[in-house]
Amino acid sequence: MSMQNNNSKPKILFLAQLPPPVHGASQRNLSVSESLIINKAFDLVILPLRFSKNIKQLGKASFRKFFLFTKFVFDLINLLFNNKFSFAYYTISVRPIGILRDSIIILILKIFKVKLLYHLRNKGVKNYSKNSFLRFVYYWVFKNNKVICLSKSISNDIIEFIDKEQLFIVNNGIKISNISVKSSKKNETLNFIYLSHLRKSKGVMEFLQSFKVVSDLGYNISATVVGDEGDIGFNDIIIFCEINKISDKVKITGPLYGDEKFKALNEADIFVFPTYYYNEIFPGVILEAMQMGLPIITTSEGAIPDMIQNNHNGLIVERKDVTSIVNAMKKLIINSEIRNKISSQAKNDFYKYYTMDIFESNMLKTFKKMSSYNEL
Hints:
By secondary structure, the chain is of the alpha/beta class. It contains 15 helices and 13 strands. It has helices at residues 24-34, 36-41, 63-82, 96-111, 125-128, 132-142, 152-155, 204-216, 234-243, 258-267, 284-291, 304-307, 322-334, 336-353, 356-375, and strands at 2-3, 11-15, 43-46, 87-90, 116-119, 146-149, 167-169, 190-195, 221-226, 250-254, 270-273, 296-298, 315-316. The longest helix is centred in the N-terminal third of the chain and has 20 residues, at 63-82. It is elongated, with a radius of gyration of 22 Å.
C-alpha cells in the first residue's frame, strides 16, 4: 500500500492487480500506477489486489488467498476512514468467484459513498448472467457506476447492464522498445514466432502442428517458441517436435522479458498467435509484434478484430483450425509483397493507436472526466 501526499490534487483510490504475478493485465495496471502525467494530476493511493504468487495460482482458492483477502479488506476500511477520495479505480473480475469476492469490496465502497470507475480486463458477463443470481449481482455492481472497456467489441459483453453514458473506451498501449526495428528482414529462412504462455487455449499446439505441415511442403522455414510453462510444458513441445521430426527447426527459449523478448521478435519474420483463450481480451503480445513490424496471423478472439483487420495489418484465421493457419502461413511465405504491406501497416497502426503515451493520455482524460463528474 502506498500513498503520495499532496492535498492540492484529487485523490484516487487505486485498486488493481499489480505484479507479481506478471501477466498482461498486471503490467498494464502497473503502467497506469506509475504514469508521470497521471501522478502529476492526481494523488494515487494504491492498494494492490495481489492474492496470487504466480500464474498457476490464478483462479484457485486457498487458505493463503483467504487470509490475504481478509487483510486487504481491513486495509481498505482503514484507508476509507482516513481519506476522502474523488473516486475509486477498480479492476474488477466478472467471473463468478471473482465478482462475488469483489462484491464484498464494492459493498464497503458503497457504504462509504465512494464513486466507482471499473476497468474491465476480462469478459464473460453475457454467459455468466444466464444464472439468475449472477444476473442480479451484475445489475447491482454496474448500476450508476462508470466502466472502462478496452474496445467497442468487448463492451458488448456488458451492454445489457450499462447505459452509453456510463462507458469509456480506452485501448491498451505499451512502451516503445529500446530495440530498433530492422528496416528490412532478409532472412534466407523465414522464422515464425509464437510468444505467449504455453497454454492449449493460446494455440501453441496448433502453431506447431501448422508449422509441421508447412515444413513438410518443403518451404525453408524455422520456428521460435517463447513463453513460460502453463498447461503445456517444455517437455510436451520437445516430445512433439521429436515425434514429428522438426526438432532441428524449432527453437524453444522459455520466457523472455524486456529487451530480450523484443530481440526475439525482431529476429523473426512472422508472428503467429492462434488463440482461443476464453478470457482473451486485448493481447499485449499482438501490440509487441505490431511494434516490431511483424505480419500477424491470429484469430478473432476478444478485442483482436478491433486490433487486426484481415489482409490490412494481419491475417485472421479460424479458431482451432490448423488448415486455416497453414493457408495463412503459405500466403505470407509465397507472397513477399503482401507480407511487406501487412508488416508496414501493422507498425504504422501501432504508432498511431497503441503507444504507452497514447494510452496514458486517454487514461488521464478519463480520470479527469470521472473527477469532474464527482464535483458536480
